[in-house]
Amino acid sequence: MFANREDAGMQLADLLRDKPVRRALVLAIPRGGVIVGAALARELAADLDVVLARKLRAPHQPELAIGAVGERGEVYLNHLGDETARDMPDYLTQEVAHQTAEIRRRQQLYRRARPRASVAGRSVIVTDDGIATGSTMLAALHVVRAEKPHELIVAAPVASPERLRELTQSCDEIVCVTAPESFWAIGQFYEDFSQVDDAEVLALLRSFAAGPPTHAQP
After folding, report:
1. How far apart are the first and last CA of the chain?
2. 3-class DSSP state for residue 48?
3. Which listed site, 73, 96, 128, 213, has its alpha carbon 20 to 30 Å from 54?
4. What's the pTM?
């Protein structure tokens, strides 16, 4: 059980503290993941940014991912996405447009606080406050991988074991504090799982805008 998202980030940091990294960058999935990511980045003296990838939803099954779209407009389709492109091209066009519009909204909001961080050649740690279906994390990984990081690490406080197994092919390493078989919802593992608003995300991004801390905090 985690006290809150900050506690979760600090526990993740304990698992990563001794790992050799190259210009470490923590990419957090908004919004709750940014609280985890900020604590993780502070402890590791790493840089912090958000990853504005969005999953593309399957027709009539919004929890099922058929691909992803990234901040620069890049589109990744899995085998379900290929089938959708063939059988329902109009739906796919509309879904890409819808998710791109949400990315643009977040771009306009978040990039005023923190310019987009460079990914290429760096140790990149992608984090969230937990992994349930894995669709959003998978979308983020496909987009970040295309930017050629030195290594791509998934860091999650809690995750479904099945989802972790599915993610292994999309990253170089997975770090997870707990992966219980009895998994219903991310919130069940937090004492405080309050909603996170944009103002809190913006404040954290601004605090890292000048670069990572010069040293890890005790």
Report:
1. 22
2. strand
3. 213
4. 0.86
Other CB atoms within 10 A of residue 52 CB? 23
CATH class of this structure's domain 5-52+115-208: alpha beta
Domain boundaries, the chain: 5-52+115-208, 55-110
Contacts of 35 (CB under 8 A, 6+ apart): 4, 5, 6, 9, 129, 196, 200, 204
In CATH terms, the fold of domain 55-110 is Ybab; Chain: A; (3.30.1310)
Three-state secondary-structure class, residue 198 = helix
Residue with tokens 């809150």: 4
Nearest to 15, CA basis, from 193, 144, 164, 156: 156
Select, from the ranges 60-64, 124-128, 162-166, the one with the highest average predicted confidence (pLDDT): 124-128
Judge if 5-52+115-208 and 55-110 fold alike in CATH terms: no
Q: Across residues 171-189, what is the average pLDDT? A: 95
Check residue 58 and give left, alpha or beta (phi > 0: left; psi -120 to 50: alpha): beta
Mean pLDDT of the chain: 92
Q: Give the span between the Cα atoms of 95 and 216, in whole angstroms.
A: 41
